[in-house]
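Input sequence (215 aa), recorded before submission:
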Amino acid sequence: ADKYQHEGDYERALSYYNEALEMDPDDWSNYNDRGATLSLMERYDEAILDFTRSLQLDAQQETVYYNLGIVYQKKKDYERALTYYNRALDMKPDYVAAYINRGNTFTEMGRYEEALQDNSKAIELDPDNARAYYNRGIVFHALKDYARALEYFNQALFLDPEYSDAYTNRGITHAATGNLELALEDYDRAIELDPDNAKAFYNRSILKGEIDLRQ
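Predicted structure, token format:
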């Protein structure tokens, strides 16, 4: 089932988790795994029910609190998301993914200093984590500190040269500083890596219009 989930075949993964729960309805991990699949399918309320049931069976699993944080973050219930990320981090203080996602939640709330602190902690724990550098780039762009944003996007791409979203957002930062040709190169590379990157297509379209107007 995990294989199908990672491959994006969520319906097949779901059917396997359903079978597993029929065979062992008291296994917290099956509810957690099915909840994670439902979350990926954007069936958030069903996911919350599964995570809640998982915690009823075993309340000492930090992964389940983390997954609840993700669901509530996706639902834009940020305060509740923070509650669950905090619980996960209380249980596992070196939980890198929880620092990263709590940092993202702070960013979405406009609480940028706290976001920077969480991503700094993630980098301290995992210096090669491209996503943590990328997220710091997002924060510095929001703060209009474009030089530092570029610094962190560059580091993310050094660690992960196929990070499509990092190319997209570095392109947006280049465009904000007037470096339109560099921005175009980044959008093209982002789309090459991920042909479904709608944000890169959208920003490239706008940028090409600006370039045409200048010619």
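Checked by second reader. The chain has a mean pLDDT of 94.
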